[in-house]
Amino acid sequence: MNFLNTKEFAQSLDAQDELKNYKNEFYFPQHNNKDVIYFTGNSLGLQPKITKKYVDEVMDDWANMAVEGHFYSEKPWWDYHERFCNPLSKLVGAKASEVGVMNTLTVNLHLLLVSFYQPKGKRIKILCEEKAFPSDQYMLQSQVKFHGFAPEDAIVEIKRRDGELTTRQEDILAKIEELGDELALVFIGGVNYYTGQVFDMKTITAAGHKAGAIVGWDLAHAAGNIELNLHDWQVDFAAWCSYKYMNSGPGNASGYFVHEKHHTNKDLNRFAGWYGHNKERRFLMEPNFDAVEGANGWQVSNLPILTLAPYLATVEMFAEVGMDKLIAKRNVITSYLEFVLHEIDKEIDGTEFEVITPSNQEERGCQLSVYLHGQGKELFTYLMQNGVITDWREPNVIRLAPVPFYTSFEDIYNFGQILKQGILSK
Question: Which residues of 246-258 are buried (b: 16+ CB within 10 A; e: fewer)?
């Protein structure tokens, strides 16, 4: 598409956008009595207006029924989580029996690694990407220490080449082959939080399996953002938070995936709890654990219904729209954002915005990470003070995520004008 950096062109794209009305379904922070331009859905998604209805239902049932709400509310609490299985499975390319919701992301990863990091003999190593999200780094370090290993011996990071900002797939595959029978687990973020790079999960998973390793993915920046086919890719396990692209609210309950090939494997360790126990016999209070077949067998505690309610609201919104339409708009609006950035480059001497996120649409989602060469944090501050909410990462990177549910093309144009004013005002 031949883009133009004009308000009229942006408005023409909005007029053609079949998702344009969804912007009205979200609450926006206000700046000078106007909606902000919101580019941080990769950190915390906006609140859908329908969310309050779902939360109020639970609060009303609690008020009116108390404990009886577990069984007699319109959405009984004891199986509330099961409403997620079908819509979530479509979002991540899984079978309904392979997905579930519980806890928060890093807690879920710890529970999953009880099953899927089982070092034996010389096969003790975990392969991850350089500059993984810190929580993943801490989680992996504590897991290998729990098994008696030093992180420097058990954790291998795939380094970027000198002078390069993203990771080459060929280097990942070469490192997997090099580690061979020392490799216990490949664990990578499906979308790198810093650069926005999307990894080829299908190819990397196949390579890990060929080496005899288990392969899992942190999908915090992937779920609700990119196309996923976890079942067909034969991914062993995965987990994701729900509050970024999936708009469930701060710190809310998260999703996870366990491939069906592991569901009946009695040799897998797991930390058990009563909500993973046979559903039909759960209230018999039996002393011995009998796991629910499927991903729900990894659940531990009674589910936090008040954090599931906002998640259910947004999951049903995703089911209504479908990932295909969201991805189609994502590709266009992200490309338009990149175009506008480069247009500002041309208009102002001495300005260079280096997009470090890959330009290939197969290797990126919503997020563009941009080096502000010649600019400093004062430009970020100017944007924030002028109604553009974005994200700053040291040393001089801003992360911009034009989420297709609630970002318009006119937002992109207006952002470019504010950005230009911020540079010229120095």
Answer: bbbbeebbbbbbb
Judge contact between 397 and 356, C-beta under 8 A: yes
C-alpha dihedral, 210 to 214 to 220 to 222, nearest 10°: 20
Asked whether the beta carbons of 355 and 370 are under 8 A apart, the reply is yes
Domain ranges of the chain: 7-47+322-425, 79-321
Residue 134 known to bind ligand: yes
Please tell me whether 324 is known to bind a ligand. Answer: no
417 close to 386: Cβ distance less than 8 angstroms: no
User: Does the annotation list 262 as a binding residue?
Assistant: no
Under DSSP, is residue 50 helix (H, G, I), strand (E, B) or coil?
coil
Is 140 annotated in a binding site? The answer is no
Q: Which fold has domain 79-321?
A: Aspartate Aminotransferase; domain 2 (3.40.640)
pLDDT band at 376 (very low <50, low <70, confident <90, very high): confident
Q: Is 302 annotated as a binding residue?
A: yes
217 labeled part of a ligand binding site: no
pTM: 0.96
| 402 CB-side CA count, 13 A | 25
**Coil, helix or strand at residue 209:** helix
CB 26 within 8 A of CB 47: yes
Residue 274 annotated as part of some ligand binding site: yes
Cis peptide bond upstream of 76, omega within 30:
no
Residue 206, classified by CB atoms within 10 Å of its CB into exposed (0-12), middle (13-18) or buried (19+), is middle
Q: Annotated binding residue at 106? A: yes
- Residue 169 structure tokens: 């797939």
How sure is the predictor about 272, in pLDDT bands with cuts at 50, 70 and 90? very high
pLDDT score recorded for residue 268: 92
Residue 185 annotated as part of some ligand binding site = no
Same fold, 7-47+322-425 and 79-321: no
284 appears as a binding residue in the annotation = no
Task: Give residue-wise pLDDT tens across range 397-408.
Answer: 999 999 999 999
Residues in the chain: 426
Is 243 annotated in some ligand binding site? Answer: yes
Class at the top of the CATH hierarchy for domain 7-47+322-425: alpha beta
| pLDDT at res. 394 | 82
Helical packing angle, 305-321 and 51-65, nearest 10°: 140
Nearest 5°: phi and psi at 244?
A: -90, -105
